Amino acid sequence: MDLLKAADVLSLHCPLTNETVGLIGHEALAVMKPTVVIINVARGEVVDEDALALALKEGRIGGASLDVFIGEPITPGNPLMAVAGDKVVLTPHMAGATMESQMRIITMTVENLAAVIEGREPINLVT
């Protein structure tokens, strides 16, 4: 919690696991600075959208930028849609849609194929 209390920006880049579901909820938001900006490009379920929308509505945090949501595509009924504006940026799961990201994916794929063909372990192997 000390890290959350001190953070000016909280950028989430974690996998969705049992431990990360709802990681940022009422309790976490309550200890953050009123100026903190939360960025979520991980998985929608990591953030409790109702808790985040309430914190934004009440001005308890400075802002948020989300590229992932619990339900995708985001619908008009999502609580974050009601607070979208100057301090809230919502994008349609497109954070990886840059030329740099696409080139990195291609490069890593080719490197992994070569590694497997040569009997080596692929890069970033998930087991």
Describe the structure in your own words.
It contains 4 helices and 4 strands. The chain has 127 residues and is of the alpha/beta class. The protein folds into 2 domains: 2-93, NAD(P)-binding Rossmann-like Domain (Rossmann fold), CATH 3.40.50; 96-127, no CATH class. The chain has a 4-stranded parallel beta sheet, with no helix packed on it. Helix 3 (49-57) links the parallel strand 2 (37-40) and strand 3. It is elongated and about 55 Å long.
Percentage of residues in helical conformation: 25-40%
Number of strands: 4
Please tell me the CATH architecture of the largest domain by its name.
3-Layer(aba) Sandwich
CATH H-level homologous superfamily name of the largest domain: NAD(P)-binding Rossmann-like Domain
Q: Which percent range describes the beta-strand content?
A: 5-15%
Query: Could you give the distance between the termini?
Result: 30 Å
Mean pLDDT: 92
Please report the first level of CATH classification, the CATH class of the largest domain. Answer: Alpha Beta
Rough outline: elongated
Radius of gyration: 17 Å
Strand order of the largest sheet: 1-2-3-4
